[in-house]
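User: We ran a pulldown and think these components assemble together. Before we commit to crystallization trials, I'd like a predicted model of the whole complex to look at. Sequences follow.
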Amino acid sequence: MKILVLLSQVPDTTARIAFTNGDTQYDGNGVTFIMNPYDEWYALVRALELKEAKGSGTVTTITVGGSDTEATIRKGLAIGADEAVRIDAQPTDALQVAELIAAYAKDKGFDLVMAGKETIDHNGGVVGAMVAELLDMPYVPLASKLDVRGDTATVERDVPGGVEVVEVKLPLALSAAKGMAEQRIPNMRGIMAARTKPLQVVAATPVTNAGGTAKFELPPAKGAVKMILAEEAGKLIELLHSEAKVI
Amino acid sequence: MSTIVFIDTRGEKLPKAAQEAVTYASKLAGGPVTAITFGDAQGLEALGASGAKKVVVARSVKALDSQQLTKLVCDVAAAEGATTIVCVHDATGKAVAPRVAARLKAGLVAGATGMPEGNRFRRNVFSGKAFAYVEVSSAVKVVSLSPNSIPIAKTENSASVEDFSGDLGTARITVKELRKAGTGVPLAEAEIVVSAGRGMKGPEHWAPVEELAQLLGGATACSRPVADMHWRPHHEHVGQTGVAIRPNCYIAIGISGAIQHLAGVNQSKVIAVINKDPEAPFFKAADYGIVGDAFEILPKLIEAAKKLNAER
Ligand SMILES: Cc1cc2nc3c(=O)[nH]c(=O)nc-3n(C[C@H](O)[C@H](O)[C@H](O)COP(=O)(O)OP(=O)(O)OC[C@H]3O[C@@H](n4cnc5c(N)ncnc54)[C@H](O)[C@@H]3O)c2cc1C
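Assistant: Here's a predicted model for the assembly, 559 residues in total across the polymer chains.
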């Protein structure tokens, strides 16, 4: 089984959010970058578990980014991926990223393409589905469980009001959400092995330019909190009704 | 120039998010639009009230097969010469909108939070800590709308309903089982959410949380440790790793307000926080706050909610 895991690099969860270049770019100055948590904990770890359970197969990670993403990519190898691909381009837009990944993956015969449910910076959650379309694969969004028997995958996903269990013949693309797997901390052996695992750098292919983010903005500062005495707690309901008008 | 809207109308009644998307599409178009859906929903004429002139239904598609649905949307888009395609930014829209965009080489606004300003669509980024203004430059654009972003239009109009007769190929996804959870208001659509955290001490103490939510016509939610400890079902978990919600009113009880929790709720219109610790970080993100013991405060809130309901 050949598995491709989409891996992106994002600012740390608690990083300061600021913009530069006339508010057109995230200001990464002094910020720690990490592997996108959903790509790491859910997609990558489940991919490794499936491969281990089967005792064969390969897990390849793919990242669109500059050479500054290589430490993050090596971490993926340290956690257990067999090989990594970096497409040498600055990611600007979901369609661009998806087209680059699809152009690489096209004739490689991947059985499974796994993305995290979204990145914690752009929060789009759409690259996986775009890649699925470009590779003509079925796609299951927000999967919380995945098992593969023979050439059939069983996937669970949360839907409004319950859990849906679906069956799909491989190849399949999906986005992975909570429930898929637990975080894995790379051990010393993994970190050593990662140094010599293949990290292939691929040149970017031409892509569609359909626009993108023209400007970022920080939300207005929150006004002061209005405190209500515990003894008069019922007043909260009155204020939410008559002042805030939200209930 | 024409606008179409793709919605998921499965379920007992017309989903709120679907009506919002139809309203949005018809506001963008400046007039009634064609809506597209699938499955065996009845009563689709009612979508006329929020701005549909015609509803095209693919009855043969029962499951969320994103390939069949993408073909459906693209076929209708071609027939109508659509230049704007609206979807809902929910589990259905997230599977279909990006596929349609990739197929048509169209720019996608993933999760618009309101009407565009000029040609700029606003969306939330950095887990609600910033906004991005997206400009689409392709001839066709796809916009998926975040739930709770627009009030539903209500007119006297009714839509015509027609079955889609084209070929959508065979389904590649089969639904084996649907395990139903609670029947309350779906969390993503709820305008009022009553949420509780580890401060509630144990699952046996949730009755007043549920009662308050029910009295206010809202949904219940919880923090991550509460779901991890199985005090509450997983679909109630809000935050960075759980569901991100944008209700009009979020009432947080016994939740500290960690940054990962706030990431999923900070776009709520009004936030009320109840915590016994005056230093709890959540108060910094709150509009209203009460310092006190949840077990003493909840009965007071319930009493006040009953009084309010009796008056209206
Ligand atoms: C990568 C990552 C992702 C995460 N994702 C999420 C996420 O998606 N969602 C999420 O919620 N968390 C998430 N977390 C966890 C988060 O950091 C917090 O640990 C969690 O939100 C705390 O939950 P809590 O507020 O219920 O519990 P606690 O932090 O234990 O807070 C309980 C609060 O209740 C108050 N309290 C106690 N007793 C009472 C009482 N009788 N009356 C009133 N108040 C009382 C306390 O003062 C305290 O503020 C994540 C963490 C990490 C590292």
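Residues 37-54 of chain A form the longest helix (18 residues). That may be worth checking against your pulldown data before setting up trials.

User: Thanks, that helps.
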